[in-house]
Amino acid sequence: MNAQELIAHYDSVLAADEWILWNPVAWTIIEPMGENHSVEYIGDLVSGVHDFHLEEVCLKEAMEVDEEGPQIYLDFFEGGYFFFDTYDLVGTQERLVRILGKNSFIWGMRWEAGAVQRRFFYACNGKIMLRMTDVLREPELEDATPLAEGITAVRSAWQTSPGANRDSALLALISLTSGALLTSDWLNGNQNAFVTKT
């Protein structure tokens, strides 16, 4: 999909799943610079000394009925993988950047509960290269600005056909530059929860 199609896509997702905007949700996309990471490699790094397993559960139902239930979900796409955290209050996203950032590109989006606020970052090889809250206003583009081509495409698409939700522009930038795509079907379906045993 191009930038305009992605903005429309995410307008649809956020209209159907508005709960994302009002909860401490985080989406973290990892694209290894070499071969894609295996589930075992990811699990060993993320779980540390604890055992882990993937458990298939309905993401939306688990979030609504059990605050102590699974909160972090793992999925793969062509070129990489992503985590979707339904309750990131303890800096899980920052930790993922630290432990998985080496030799990887990472895109991250996080919403702050009840604040109508979102934070986007882009990291390369463990170093944060770009932060913003509104791709339509920031940053001022320079030759060395990371993701400049994608930012320009999203802004141009928005000027041609403005979306309904400015968060759609940030999500469109992530998908346009990473290849990962978040859908309503995914958010409301059965997904692999990342479960650690303490």
UniProtKB/TrEMBL annotation:
It comes from the Bacteria. This is Uncharacterized protein. It comes from Microbispora hainanensis. The lineage of its organism: Bacteria, Bacillati, Actinomycetota, Actinomycetes, Streptosporangiales.
